[in-house]
Specification:
Glu/Leu/Phe/Val/Trp_DH_dimer, Glu_Leu_Phe_Val_DH, Glutamate dehydrogenase, glutamate dehydrogenase (NADP+) activity, 15 helices, binds NADPH dihydro-nicotinamide-adenine-dinucleotide phosphate, 12 strands, seven-stranded mixed sheet
Length: 434
C-alpha cells in the first residue's frame, strides 16, 4: 500500500491472491525465497506516454497511453489494450498482475502485461479512431515485438482497432511478424479468437456444473455486458440449451423473460458491433423490458456470467443472487466481483470461478494465434475449438487439484491462484534475482 498509494484496484487484486495462496506458502516456504512475493507484485516495466492526435474538427486532442510489462518469466509479455475513459495506472496494474497468473494457468509460454489509454472511442468517427490508433502505436511500437510483448484487444479495442494498430506497426518497422493477436482472418488472425473468451467461460462453467451433475440444458442464465465476451458467452450458453435472460451495458440492463434466440443475438451483435448502439435500442427493437442504471443480478437465475467490467457485482448483488438460489457464477470479465461478493459466494458454497481461470480462453487462443503465425499455418475452426476446450478442461482440473478443500468443496479462487502462482514462481526462482 505504501509503494502504491491511490491504486485500489491493484491492491484489491494483490490482496485476493496473497490471502488465497498464504496457507500454501506456509506449507511450501521455498516459494518465499529470494523475496519472490515482493518481486512478483512489482511490474518489470511500465511505460507511460503522450498520445496526441487531431480530431475531425481540426482540434488537437491529448490522451495518455500505457503499457504495463508485468512479468516475462514464462515468455513474452502478453495481454490486451483497453481504450476507456476510466483507464488509469491502478486498473492496468491490476489487470497485468492478473494476466500473469492467468497466462500461467493456460500452460502456454506467455508472460503477463496490459495496456491502453483513457481515450473514449464512443461517439468518435472511424477516421478519428484510426488516427488515434496510429498515434498510439507511433510510440508503443518501440516497446513491443513478437518475442518481447504481444498486445491484443480488450474493452474498446476490437478487430477494427487491432487492424489499425497492426497496420501502423508494420509501416513503422517493416516487419510483418505477429505483434498483435486478435487480428483479422485475412492477415494472420486465428479462427475462434473472437469467440474464445465467451465460449471458454461457458466451457469452464460447464465443467463446474458437472461437479454437481448438472448441465446447461434448461438452466436460466444472466449475462452482463453486451460486448465481445458477453455476445459469445450468450451464443455458447444458447448452444448448450440454456435460457439467457439478460444483457447489459453501462446504461442499464435488458431483461427478456422469453430468453435470447439466435435471431435476437444476431440483432444484438448488429446493434453493438455495426451500429455502435446501446442495449436500450436492442430492448426497444425486440419489445423487451429495459431497466436504466440497473445491473442484472436481481434477476433469479441458476448461472450468472458477469462479462462487462471490474467491480460490477458487489456484496448486495451477491446476496440477491444467493437468495435466488444461484448455483454457479463464472466470471467472463476481469475481477467483476468485489472481494465481499467473492467471500459471500465461497462461504455459501456457490460454485464460483474467478476470471483468471474462467476467462482464460481468450488469451489461450491468442497463444494459439501466435503459434499459427510462427508456423505460417492456419488451423481450422474445429482444431482451434478443440484445443480451446482441452485448455479450459485443463484449467478446470488444475483449479480442482489445488482448490479441493478437506470437506470436499472446491475453492476455484484458491485453486486458480495457487496453480497460476506455482508455475510463475518456479520459473522466477530458476532464473535467479533479475
Ligand atoms: P467490450 O468493449 O467488447 O465490451 C465491454 C462491455 O462492458 C460493454 O457492454 C460495455 O458497455 C460494458 N461496460 C464497460 N464498462 C462498464 C461499466 N463501467 N459499467 C457497466 N458496463 C460496462 O469488451 P470485452 O467484451 O472484450 O471485455 C469485457 C470484459 O472481459 C473486460 O473485463 C475484459 O478485461 C475482459 N476480458 C476480455 C477478453 C477478450 O478476449 N476480449 C479476454 C479476457 C477478459 P458500454 O458499451 O456501455 O461501455
Amino acid at each position: 500500500t505504501k509503494r502504491n498509494p491511490d491504486q485500489p484496484e491493484f491492491i484489491q487484486a494483490i490482496t485476493e491472491v496473497i490471502e488465497s495462496v498464504w496457507p500454501f506458502l506456509k506449507a511450501n516456504p521455498r516459494f518465499t525465497e529470494l523475496s519472490l512475493l515482493d518481486r512478483l507484485v512489482e511490474p518489470e516495466r511500465v511505460v507511460i506516454f503522450r498520445v496526441s492526435w487531431i480530431d475531425d474538427a481540426g482540434q488537437v486532442q491529448v490522451n495518455r497511453g500505457y503499457r504495463v510489462q508485468h512479468n516475462s518469466a514464462l515468455g513474452p509479455y502478453k495481454g490486451g489494450l483497453r481504450f476507456h475513459p476510466s483507464v488509469n495506472l491502478a486498473i492496468l496494474k491490476f489487470l497485468a498482475f492478473e494476466q500473469t497468473l492467468k497466462n500461467s494457468l493456460t500452460t502456454l509460454p506467455i508472460g503477463g502485461g496490459k495496456g491502453g489509454s483513457d481515450f473514449n472511442p464512443k461517439g468518435k468517427s472511424q477516421q478519428e479512431v484510426m488516427r488515434f490508433c496510429q498515434a498510439f502505436i507511433t510510440e508503443l511500437y518501440r516497446h513491443i515485438g513478437s518475442n518481447t510483448d504481444v498486445p491484443a484487444g480488450d474493452i474498446g479495442v476490437g478487430g477494427r482497432e487491432v487492424g489499425y494498430m497492426a497496420g501502423m506497426y508494420k509501416k513503422l518497422t517493416n516487419q510483418a511478424d505477429c505483434v498483435f493477436t486478435g487480428k483479422g482472418i485475412s492477415f494472420g488472425g486465428s479462427l475462434i479468437r473472437p469467440e474464445a473468451t465467451g465460449y471458454g467461460t461457458v466451457y469452464f462453467a460447464k465443467h463446474m456444473l458437472a461437479e454437481k451433475n448438472m448441465t446447461f440444458d434448461g438452466l436460466r442464465v444472466s449475462v452482463s455486458g453486451s460486448g465481445n465476451v458477453a455476445q459469445f458467452a450468450i451464443e455458447k450458453a444458447l448452444a448448450l440449451g440454456a435460457k439467457v435472460i439478460t444483457a447489459s451495458d453501462s446504461s442499464g440492463t435488458v431483461i427478456d423473460e422469453d430468453g435470447f434466440t439466435t435471431e435476437k443475438l444476431e440483432l444484438l451483435k448488429q446493434i453493438k458491433n455495426v451500429e455502435y448502439g446501446r442495449v436500450s435500442d436492442y430492448a426497444t427493437r425486440i419489445g423487451a423490458r429495459f431497466e436504466a442504471n440497473v445491473r442484472p443480478w436481481h434477476v433469479p437465475v441458476d448461472v450468472a456470467l458477469p462479462c462487462a467490467t471490474q467491480n460490477e457485482l458487489d456484496g448486495d448483488d451477491a446476496k440477491a443472487l444467493i437468495k435466488n438460489n444461484v448455483v454457479c457464477v463464472a466470471e467472463g470479465a476481469n475481477m467483476p466481483s468485489t472481494l465481499e461478493a467473492v467471500t459471500l459466494f465461497e462461504d455459501n458454497h456457490i460454485l464460483f470461478a474467478p476470471g483468471k481461470a474462467s476467462n482464460a480462453g481468450g488469451v489461450a487462443t491468442s497463444g494459439l494465434e501466435m503459434s499459427q503465425n510462427a508456423m505460417r499455418l492456419s488451423w481450422t475452426q474445429e482444431e482451434v475449438d478443440t484445443r480451446l476446450q482441452e485448455i479450459m478442461q485443463g484449467i478446470h482440473d488444475a483449479c480442482v487439484k489445488y482448490g479441493r478443500r478437506d470437506n470436499g468443496s472446491i475453492s476455484y479462487v484458491d485453486g486458480a491462484n495457487i496453480a497460476g502462482f506455482v508455475k510463475v514462481a518456479e520459473a522466477m526462482l530458476a532464473q535467479g534475482v533479475v
